[in-house]
């Protein structure tokens, strides 16, 4: 990620962390900024588990957006690790964009996040999202209330979904990042490795198809990723579930569910990678993976020590 390439003179480069409550729309915003599917989006909360970066390079400026997991009151170990990763993302960034679901407004969750944000020293930007669902007066009142709580450099009212206001937000970020060499080559959109992308896309399909609590307790890992002689990718993935009964549901009768998940994931991965993809998915039972430090490392998360 540090291989610099000749860049225009007087370049700028900076990190902008996108933080907010689960479902605020951070992943949707990231995808809209980068213009492609970097981060997975579902209607269920907490789909972003570790930090995902999206890179936008325009002229001499390069902004690296960090999509952090939604911050919420953590209970399980995994939840604590996700929250930790989110605040770490905010601490590492040059700018912190606080994304608020304007339709939900000032919830208890948002209030406790605002308290946490008080400790963040970097310049902060307030981003009220989902304006397509909210009346202007409601937006203005919400903006006023949040700005009264602490100092934000500026406030944007956007719809990550329709793209309204996203360009202005990007332009502001571009203007306010520090001078410095680029961190990524001009044409690179994300530092997610291909293997992680394969696992993330498959996990999204699992989330969308299995309408039970299982996906929250499941993890997808790429076991091997090989570029074949003909240029196609051969990818072996493992879905880890915590119970045998969950495995049966993920497989479906006669393997129908996992086949459908695999077909959807493969189709999308071929669009992303632009090469033929051979995808093999195995479902394995591993009890209590949420307490296994090794799984955290593979997801790019720190294992939270302390009581589980
Ligand atoms: N109407 C509307 N819906 C939006 C907008 N932005 C996001 N959404 C929807 O809100 C839901 C959550 O969006 P995500 O982008 O996954 O939210 P997130 O903040 O990344 O969520 P976590 O990964 O759980 O932290 C999805 O169903 C999106 O389609 C918006 O501007 N307008």
TrEMBL record:
Gene Ontology biological-process annotations: ribosomal small subunit assembly
Keyword Metal-binding tagged: no
Residue span, KH type-2 domain: 210-287
Region (G4) residue spans: 129-132
Gene Ontology terms for molecular function: GTP binding; GTPase activity; ribosomal small subunit binding; small ribosomal subunit rRNA binding
Protein localization: Cytoplasm; Cell membrane
InterPro entries: G_ERA_dom, GTP-bd, GTPase_Era-like, KH_dom-like_a/b, KH_dom_type_2, KH_sf_prok-type, P-loop_NTPase, Small_GTP-bd
Top-level taxon of the source organism: Bacteria
Presence of keyword RNA-binding: yes
Annotated Era-type G domain residues: 12-179
Region (G5): 158-160
Topology in membrane: Peripheral membrane protein
Gene3D superfamilies: 3.30.300.20, P-loop containing nucleotide triphosphate hydrolases
Family annotation (CDD domains): Era (cd04163), KH-II_Era (cd22534)
Region annotated G1, chain positions: 20-27
GO cellular component, one term: plasma membrane
Region (G2): 46-50
Functional note: An essential GTPase that binds both GDP and GTP, with rapid nucleotide exchange. Plays a role in 16S rRNA processing and 30S ribosomal subunit biogenesis and possibly also in cell cycle regulation and energy metabolism.
Protein's name in the database: GTPase Era
Lineage, opening ranks: Bacteria, Pseudomonadati, Pseudomonadota, Alphaproteobacteria, Hyphomicrobiales
């Amino acid at each position: 990620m540090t291989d610099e390439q000749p860049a225009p003179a007087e370049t700028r480069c900076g990190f902008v962390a996108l933080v907010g409550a689960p479902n605020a729309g951070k992943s949707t915003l990231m995808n809209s900024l980068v213009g492609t599917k970097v981060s997975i989006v579902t209607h269920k909360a907490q789909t972003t588990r570790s930090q995902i970066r999206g890179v936008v390079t325009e002229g001499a400026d390069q902004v690296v957006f960090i999509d952090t997991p939604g911050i919420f009151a953590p209970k399980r170990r995994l939840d604590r690790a996700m929250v930790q990763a989110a605040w770490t993302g905010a601490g590492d960034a040059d700018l912190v964009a606080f994304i608020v679901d304007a339709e939900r407004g000032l919830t208890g969750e948002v209030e406790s996040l605002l308290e946490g944000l008080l400790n963040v020293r970097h310049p902060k930007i307030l981003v009220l999202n989902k304006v397509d669902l909210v009346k202007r007066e409601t937006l203005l009142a919400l903006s006023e209330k949040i700005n009264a709580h602490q100092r934000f450099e500026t406030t944007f009212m956007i719809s990550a979904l329709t793209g309204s206001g996203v360009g202005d937000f990007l332009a502001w970020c571009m203007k306010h990042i520090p001078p410095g060499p680029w961190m990524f080559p001009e044409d690179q959109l994300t530092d997610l490795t291909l293997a992680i992308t394969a696992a993330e896309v498959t996990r999204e399909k699992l989330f969308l198809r299995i309408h039970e609590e299982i996906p929250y307790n499941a993890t997808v890992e790429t076991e091997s990723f090989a570029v074949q002689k003909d240029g196609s990718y051969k990818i072996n993935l493992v879905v880890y579930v915590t119970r045998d009964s969950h495995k049966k549901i993920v497989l479906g009768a006669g393997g129908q569910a996992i086949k459908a998940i695999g077909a959807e994931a493969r189709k999308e991965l071929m669009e992303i990678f632009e090469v033929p993809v051979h995808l093999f998915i195995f479902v394995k039972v591993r009890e209590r993976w949420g307490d296994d430090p090794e799984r955290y490392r593979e997801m790019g998360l720190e294992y939270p020590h302390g009581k589980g």
